[in-house]
Amino acid sequence: MAATKDAKIRAFDKKSGKVLWEAQLPVPGYATPSTYSIDGRQYVVIACGGGKIGSKSGDQYIAFALPARK
């Protein structure tokens, strides 16, 4: 989830609601993150555009590689 004015993207535990991971984005990502896989590696990408509710504007896509499964 990244639809916050603080320009962070976060992953939550679906049962407890605990934040499992977070990262700083260059500007807020009010878009819905997407996930995809290449050669068995999973990625999450988000469009960072900002510009809403007084936040800084930008025009980048940021992708994160998820940890490899054990």
TrEMBL record:
Q: What is this protein called?
A: PQQ-binding-like beta-propeller repeat protein
Ranges for the Pyrrolo-quinoline quinone repeat domain? 2-44
Q: What is the lineage of its organism?
A: Bacteria, Pseudomonadati, Bacteroidota, Chitinophagia, Chitinophagales
Q: Which InterPro entries match?
A: PQQ_rpt_dom, Quinoprotein_ADH-like_sf
Q: For this UniProt entry, which segments traverse the membrane?
A: none
Provide the species name.
Paraflavisolibacter caeni
